[in-house]
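Changelog entry: the Exo-alpha-(1->6)-L-arabinopyranosidase record was regenerated in this release. Current contents:
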Amino acid sequence: MQEQGTPRRQLLALGLAAPLAAGTVLAAGDGATAAARPAASSAPAARLPFRDPRLTFEQRVGDLLGRLTRDEKISLLHQYQPAIPRLGLRAFRTGGEALHGLAWLGEATVFPQAVGLAATWDPALLRRVGAAVGDEARGFQHERPEGWSLNLWAPVVNLLRDPRWGRNEEGYSEDPCLSGVLSTAYGHGLQGDDPRYLKTAPTIKHYLANNTEKDRVTSDSVLRPRVRREYDEAAFRPALEADAVTGVMSSYNLVNGRPATVNPDLNDVVRKWARKPLLHVTDADGPNNLTGAQGYYATRPEADAAALKAGIDSFTADSAEPAKTVRSLTTALEKGLITESELDTAVRHILHIRCRLGEFDPDGGPYAEITKAAVDSPAHRALARTAAEEAVVLLKNHAEALPLDPGRVRKLAVVGPLADTLYTDWYSGTMPYEVTPREGIVRRLGGAGKVTGGEGVDRVALRGAGGAYLSAGGGEDGAVLTESGDGAGSAEQFDVFDWGRGIVTLRSAANGKYVGWDGKVFRNDQKQPGGWFVQQQFVLEEQDDGTRLVRYAGYETLADSFGPKRYLAAGADGTVTLAAKEDAGRYELRTVRDGVAEAVEAARAADAAVVVVGSMPAINGREDHDRPDMALAAGQAALVKAVHRANPRTVVVLETSYPDTVNWEQEHIPALVWTTHAGQETGNALARVLFGDVNPAGRLTQTWYRSEDDLPGLLDYDIIASRRTYLYFRGDPLYPFGHGLSYTSFRYGTPEPSASALREDETVTVSVRVTNTGARDGDEVVQLYTRRRASRDEQPLRQLRAFTRVRVAAGRSETVRLRLRAADLTHWDVTRGREVLEDGVHEVLVGASSQDIRGRATLRVHGETIPARDLTATTRAADFDDCRDVRLVDESKASGEAVGSERDGAWIAFRDAELGSGATEFTARVAREARGAGRVQVRLGAPDGPLAGTAEVRATGGRYAYDTVTARLRGARGRHDVYLVLSGELRIGSFSLR
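Regenerated C-alpha cells:
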C-alpha cells in the first residue's frame, strides 16, 4: 500500500501505474507453468500492472497471480497472509469482528447488540451504523494494531429459530425476510458507497443452520429441502444477491451429516447468488475439526483439499501460525488431491477482494484517507444514541404508566442489578464511555437528589469455621483471596449478583472488581465477568447446618479438568484455592446489606420505581453455551415482586440478549420495557424513552414464548414439522413476532394492492393509509404478511414479505407503500426440486405485528399447479413430503444427500404419486454398512397400508458404497401416497417405481 501523503492523481501523473498490454499477463496468470514461478521483471513494484487503477480488477488480479510462485500462492490461503516484499505486498489478515462495532482493537463506538439493531426495523439506520463501523475499521488501519483487518466477519444471519441459542444476541431475527433486509443494509454500510472499491469486505456468517452451541462441532443440523431452501438459505441469499457482502464463513456444525467446512454448496449454490467474486473463510479451527472431533477425514491434506474443492478460500486454523496449513496444502497439491487450477481459483478470490479494498492502488484507494479521527467521533456517539433509542421495545403499558412525567416524579427509585453497570458480550468493543441506566435517568431529572435506590443485591461476608473471613484486596489489581480477615471490613465484603440456576458472581466491595480464578488462585481483579473461559462464577451451596460451601462454577469445560476439586478452601497460609467437596471450607454467610430490603425502602419513599433486570452476556447465554431455560434469575424475579408490592407504580426494564418467560411480570407489572445490551448510550436512551422524549417504536424480531414447553428440542431444525417460529407456531405466545407498543395510537386504512392479480416476474404495490390518532408524534412499523389459502404443501400461517418504519405526526396521516414481488410468493417444490409459483389466492395482511392485523385484501396469483408426483423417473429419497425416524445424511463425503433409517419401521412418504396403469418394479440405490440384511417395503396410502413390494438390502461394504436393489411390485396402480418403510440400518439415495 502506498505511503500516506502522496495523492493518487500525482502518482498517475508520474506514470507509476502503466497500463497493461492487452491479453499478455492475463494469459500468463492462467497458465500452470507461469503461475509456478516468479515472473521476471526489472520494473519497480509500483510500476507493475496490478498496481494500475485504470485496469479492471480482473486484469490486475490476473497480472499479480501470474507473478506469484506456487509457495507464495499457498501462503495466501491461511488467515494470516504473509508479506511478499519482492512485490511490495504487505501482510494481510482475514477476520475482524464487527457485529455491532469493532471488537478487540481498543476503544471504539459500541452500538446495540445485533438483535437490538434488528429491533429497530430500520434498514436505513443499520446502513448508517455499518458505515460508521466501516469508517472506524479504516481509521484503525493506519496504526495496524494486532487484530487489524479490513475483512470484517459480520453480519450474522443465522436465524433465531430458538431463543435458547447461546448466540441469540449475534443474529437479527427468526424471520428470513427481516434478516435478509437488515443484513443487506448493514453490509452495504460496511462496504461503502463507491461503485468499484470496498471500504471494508464484510463476511456473512455462519453458513449454514448454525443455531445451537451444545456439541457444536459434532452436532448435526438436519434440514429437509423445504426448510433448507425456504428458511435457512433464505436468510443468506438477499445480501449475497445484492452484493452487500463479499463472502461467507462456514459454520462448525454438520449439515445433513456433512461438516459445513466441506459443504459443496459454498461453490455450487452460494457463488451463483452473487455477481462478483466471493472470498469464503472457515470458522476458527474449522479445518482441524475435520480430522479431529468430526473424524471426517484421516489426514489434514485430505481434509484441506476437500475444503478447497468445496469452496473455501481462506483457512482459519492454528491461530497466527500458518505452517500446518501451508504444509498440508502443499502435500495435497503434490499428491494430486487438488490441482494448480483449483489453487489459483482460491488465490484469485483472495486477491480480488484485496484489490477492491484499494490495497494495490498507489494511493490506497478512495477510502485510504479515513483517519483515526473517525473512531469514537461525535457523529458516531450521536448515532449510537439514536440506535439505542430506536432499539427500545415497549412490551406493555397499562393505563399509560409510561411515559413518566418529570414534573410529577419528584423522587424516583432506580434499582436492580443492571442499574449501574453496562455489560459487554464476547464480540463487543471497548466502550469509550459508559452511561448506565441510573446515570441516564439522573441526567434527565437534573440531579442525583431525585433518584434513590441501589442495585438490589445483597452485600455479604463469609466467615470461615476458624473465625476468619474471606478477604480480598483494594486497588486496581485487587489481591489473592485469603481466609484471613478478623472482621467484616470492606475487604471482606462481596456483592452477590444472581444470574439464575444458582450461579452468582462476587464483586469485592474493596475495589468494585469481581473475584475470579486465574488457574492457581482466586483474585478480585476483573471489571466484569468475561473472557472465553468465564472464571468468575460461583454457587453458594447451603448445607444442613446453615453454612455454605462455595463451589467454583466457572466455564464448565475448564472446571471439568479439575475433577472433584471445585470448592473453595483455604490452605495453611490462608490462601484460597480449590479442593474436593469433603475438604471444602464451610462458611457462615453474614448479610451486611439486604439488597431487596434496600430497594423496597427506596421504592416506598418514591413516586415511582424503575427496576432494571436482565442477563449477563458472558454467563446466561453465549458462544459455546446455550441457555437451559428462559426464566429470569430467581433473585431478580423476587426483587421485581418485592418492589412492586412496595410501590405499584413500578416499571420493569428488561436488558437481555434474548426473550425471557416473564409471565408474572406481564400479568402484574404496569409497564415493561425491553432493550438489548445497547452499548455506551444505553442509559441516555432508556431515560429518553421512559420520560417520553423519545416515543418507542422498536419491535420484537422473534417470538417470546410462555414456556420451554412451547418448544421442541434445541437440535430439531425442522421448523415445519415442529411448529417452530411465528411461521408455524399455533400456540399463544407471550409476545408475538413484530410486537411493540407506542405512546400514541395508529389507525390503519384498508390495504389496496395496485393490481388484483399477480403473475410471474411481476410486482404489486400495496398501499395503506396510516393515521396517528394520538397526541404524540411517533414511528409506526407497518408490516405486510401474506397467507396462502390453499397449497399442495403445508404453508406458513403467515409470512412477513415487506415492512417500513414510518414517522407520522400527531393527528396526521401517511400513505405507506409496500412492494410485493411474485418471486416473494414462491416456495420449494420437492416433487421437481425447484422453486414454484403456485396458482391460487393469497391473503394480504397489513398490521402492527404478526398477530395484530389491521387490514386484509386478497391477491390472485397466476402460477402453476403442482402436478402429481412422477415416481417413474429417478427420485431423490431426500425429497420426501413427510417422514418418521429417519435422518438426512451425506450420500458421499463430497456431495449429495441420502436418507438413513434410525430404527425399524422408519418411513418416508411421497404424497400424491401417479402410478398410472401400474408400476411393476421398484429400484433403489442403497448402502448398508452393517452385516446381515435390511429391507425397504413399498406401501400405499399409509405406513401400514397395502404392501406393494419388498426389496432386501444386504451389506454393501460401507455407508458410502451403494448398490442397486430391486423388487417386484403388485397392485401399485392409480394415484396414491407412497411410503417407503425401512427396516435395519441402511441408507437410500434414490429410487424409482416403473
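The two ends are 65 Å apart (CA to CA).
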